[in-house]
Amino acid sequence: MFKVTRSDKPEDWTNSDYTDPVVVKQLKKDFLSKCYLCEQADFGNVNVEHFVPHLNKSEELRTDWNNLYYACSHCNGIKGSRHKELLDCCEESHNVDTAISLEAPSVPNGKIILTNTLTNDSDLFELTNKTIALLEQCYNNANSGNQQISHQYLKEKILEEHAYLQNLRFELKKGLNRLIQREKDDLVERISNMLKRACK
Ligand SMILES: [Zn+2]
Predict the structure, then answer these.
(1) Which residues make up the environment of ion ligand 1, defined by Cβ < 5 Å?
(2) Ligand 1 centroid vs 16 CA: distance in angstroms?
(3) Ligand 1 geometric centre to CA of 13 (Å)
(4) Whole-angstrom Cα Rg for the chain
(5) Rounded distance, CA 56 to CA 27, Å?
(6) Of all helices (H) and strands (E), which one includes residue 113?
(7) 160 burial class (0-12, 13-18, 19+ CB within 10 angstroms)?
(8) Å from CA of 33 to ligand 1 middle
């Protein structure tokens, strides 16, 4: 997960429609165009997700700006109203960027491995476990036809980025004594840009 700094509620959002383009546009900017759960960027199936489910059609929760999150339909469908107690990427103290480590699968059909990095005396330990339970489904669940396609697509994107990074590292390591400085600098810059992109 990644941290999000939420802007104030858009002043030109004056109706009660949480899918209003004004809302979606601001969320997209705040969430760096990424689904807050699976972290894929620039996806087509954008959903405005309610962090706290608006059960019983609570108008307050439904239109509360601070309860609206940017997500893809795959993750929104999995989260539904079943997953309620989660780490909050908009809450600075939750340290969502370090509480969970994500490991790409070592074989093409393997699962993405999520690990709780906190010690069990941490206040956020249980919340992190519950978040991992949801993310495991977002990353690895392929029960329905649609989910299977999204799951496969997501995994391929992660594997692709992982393979590219490994390749750059290998090229650099192999060429340490052979490459001229400019070529080494170029490789280091490409690796650094990739890591910056991943941490954005
Ligand atoms: Zn997603």
Answers:
(1) 35, 37-38, 72, 75
(2) 25
(3) 25
(4) 19
(5) 25
(6) strand 113-116
(7) exposed
(8) 11
Q: How far is the CA of 98 from the centre of ligand 1 (A)?
A: 19
User: Residue with structure tokens 């509480």?
Assistant: 99
* Ligand 1 center from residue 73 Cα (angstroms): 7
Q: Which H helix or E strand runs over 114?
A: strand 113-116
Q: How far is the CA of 157 from the centre of ligand 1 (A)?
A: 12
The CA 118 to ligand 1 mean position distance, Å, reads: 23
Query: In 3-state terms, what secondary structure has residue 192?
Result: helix
Integer Cα distance of 139 and 141 in angstroms = 6
For residue 94, which of 68, 128, 136, 130 has the smallest C-alpha distance? 128
With CA atoms as reference, report the closest residue to 30 among 68, 60, 76, 78. 68
Report which of 109, 27, 111 is spatially closest to residue 65, judged by C-alpha positions.
27
Listed range (40-54, 129-143, 165-179) with the worst mean pLDDT: 165-179
Residue with tokens 């490991």: 103
Q: What's the token pair of residue 116?
A: 């709780």
**Contact 66/54 with Cβ under 8 angstroms?**
no
The model's pLDDT over 155-175, given as tens digits with 9 standing for 90+, comes to 777 777 778 888 888 888 888
CA of 184 to the centre of ligand 1 (A): 36
